[in-house]
Write a structure and sequence with these properties.
2-enoyl-CoA Hydratase, Chain A, domain 1; globular; 11 strands; seven-stranded mixed β-sheet; alpha/beta; Lyase 2-enoyl-coa Hydratase, Chain  A, domain 2; 16% strand
């Protein structure tokens, strides 16, 4: 796949690095000393970078992964010992002086990360290399695919400290497990291995630990080569359908089809199918633009 568009997102941020290659943006959490638990500055930077991925023509697929033994072990509750890299957004005072302050902080700092991942039209993959707990679990479940190392552990440990899954984890677990399954998972403070998580429907695929980086990139490359317009429209239609009636979902997919059927990717797909050739999608993404 040729890459005529470079990405301004490549670089180092609070607690994570970003690479972009072949249409794949890889966001790598890099605080293994604390199992990649996320501070407020790191969460805010992640939201900004993920939002930018939506508008970056160089990005077709987003992969979230991490270094060390933890994918993300929750929110960092320790001292503010951030690295020297500047944050993308101004730092804000912390503290919970009143319940109303905490509620606003949770909506802004804790819940926005999972919402941002889910709002992306581009395909997202969580490559879970270790502990995915609390917000780490929610980050994974918000992605479209979860590829887990065999040694990975997933769970919501908030009740072990008397806390709530306030980052949105309860909603994501209801989506995956249903009401009774989510209640059981949360109230019993369950921590499950990769194989059990796959059996529950929380994980798409389980691979040997050493194979995780290669497998997640192979999957990302496969998805990046697909017809991006149709895929992004279909992704949104599928998530919408989970909360729509049959008639509403039918109207939604009809409007999306009216867009994708006239796109150059559909023309190429039809041409290649008739000639029994492999289609070459996404030429529109590889053409230089005038910046307008």
């Amino acid at each position: 796949m040729s890459e005529l568009v470079s990405s301004p997102l490549v670089g180092e941020y609070q607690g994570f690095d970003v690479t972009v290659d072949g249409g794949i943006a890889e966001i790598i959490l890099r605080r293994p000393d604390r199992l990649n638990a996320l501070s407020i500055p790191a969460r805010r930077d992640l939201v900004e970078v993920l939002s930018a991925c939506q508008l970056d023509a160089a990005v077709r697929v987003v992969v979230l992964t991490a270094t060390g033994r933890g994918f993300c072990a929750g929110m960092w509750l320790g001292p503010r010992d951030e690295d020297e890299r500047p944050t993308l957004v101004p730092d804000l005072p912390g503290g919970h002086r009143a319940p109303v302050d905490l509620a606003a902080q949770l909506r802004t700092h804790s819940q926005e990360l999972a919402r941002t991942i889910r709002r992306l039209d581009k395909v997202t993959i969580a490559a879970v290399n270790g502990f995915a707990v609390q917000i780490g679990l929610s980050m994974a479940l918000a992605c479209d695919y979860v590829v887990a190392a065999r040694s990975a552990t997933l769970g919501s440990a908030t009740l072990r400290m008397g806390y709530q899954p306030d980052e949105g984890g309860h909603w994501l677990l209801v989506e995956h497990l249903g009401v009774k399954g989510a209640l059981d998972f949360l109230l019993r403070k369950r921590m499950v291995g990769a194989a059990e998580a796959q059996a529950l429907g929380l994980v798409t695929e389980v691979v040997d630990d050493d194979d995780l980086p290669q497998r997640s990139r192979e999957l990302a490359a496969e998805l990046a080569a697909g017809p991006q317009v149709a895929m992004r429209l279909l992704k949104r239609a599928v998530y919408n359908a989970a909360h729509q009636t049959l008639d509403q979902a039918g109207d939604d997919i009809a409007v999306r089809t009216a867009v994708s059927d006239f796109h150059t990717d559909a023309v190429e797909g039809s041409r290649a199918w008739l000639r029994k050739q492999t289609p070459t999608f996404n030429r529109w993404l590889e053409e230089p633009t005038d910046g307008s």
